[in-house]
Design a protein that fits this description.
Blueprint (H helix, E strand, L loop, with lengths): L10 E9 L5 E2 L3 E2 L3 E14 L2 E8 L8 E2 L4 E5 L1 E9 L7 E5 L5 E7 L3 E9 L8 E4 L5 E4 L9 E5 L4 E3 L1 E2 L2 E8 L11 E6 L6 E12 L21
Parallel strand pairs: 11-16
Antiparallel strand pairs: 1-19, 2-18, 3-18, 4-17, 4-19, 5-6, 5-15, 5-18, 7-14, 7-17, 8-11, 8-13, 9-10, 9-12, 10-11, 12-13
Length: 234
């Protein structure tokens, strides 16, 4: 993930921008036989009801023998909340809520004396300046010093082969997949990202970035083949 550089014989396959409401949506099946690594980037847009993200592996680009792919880590964009008038001690992992202002909620990733690093969970990323924020477990309080900054910071989270992207607009999520994490011995070389039905309007898009090419072809052999990239704007 860190220090990734683009080179000429990498591969890129989009999961087209669309409204994911209405049914579960899968990306194209990605052939990892020519690459050692894949990065899946998912971007939640202006409207974002939450939904689970999982991955499958298969033995063909039509999903033959598809089964769940195991992964234990993902990244999410977060933000920095500058604070003052602190009472008590906030706790890592608790849910933070703002009252008398934005009504935003967020997961606390790290705690410092003058700021919190958080991952937004509901509503948005613009907090109300001077309004009170409260830790759901610790009961600690503080006043916001600003409306929140650094929305491009990437923070890591652990998971058990699935995670739910939050009901928060304009966030990015990333999952790294090594080709050798697929069940190669049984012929599994294709991988697919799946977005569950969010049950409400949820505009988003995805991008597969294929790296560690196994040969020097320019252009590289297609990881998509005859599959078509489609979008359902339900």
């Amino acid at each position: 993930m860190f220090g990734k550089e683009l080179v000429q014989n990498m591969g890129f396959v989009q999961m087209a921008p669309q409204d994911f409401n209405g049914a579960a949506t899968g990306s194209a099946w990605i052939d990892l036989s020519k690459y050692g690594h894949a990065t899946f980037v998912f971007m939640a847009g202006e409207s974002a009801d939450d939904a689970a993200i999982t991955f499958k592996e298969a033995t063909s680009n039509t999903g033959t023998g598809s089964q769940a792919l195991t992964y234990t880590k993902y990244w999410s964009t977060g933000q920095r909340l500058n604070i003052d008038t602190v009472v008590g001690t906030f706790a890592v992992g608790e849910t933070l809520t703002q009252t008398g202002g934005s009504a935003n909620t967020a997961y606390i990733y790290s705690v410092s004396s003058d700021h919190l690093m958080v991952i937004p969970l509901t509503n948005g990323t613009t907090w109300t300046d001077d309004a009170v924020i409260t830790g759901g477990t610790s009961g600690a309080t503080a006043a916001m010093d600003g409306t929140g900054t650094d929305e491009d910071i990437l923070l890591d989270r652990t998971c058990s082969s699935t995670f739910t992207y939050a009901s928060t607009t304009f966030k990015t999520y990333i999952v790294e997949i090594d080709a050798d994490s697929l069940t190669i011995a049984d012929g599994y070389r294709y991988v697919q990202a799946n977005i569950a039905n969010p049950g409400g309007a949820s505009i988003g898009a995805g991008l597969w970035i294929l790296s560690q090419p196994r040969q020097r072809g320019v252009p590289m052999p297609s990881a998509l083949g005859a599959q078509k990239i489609v979008a359902d704007f339900a």
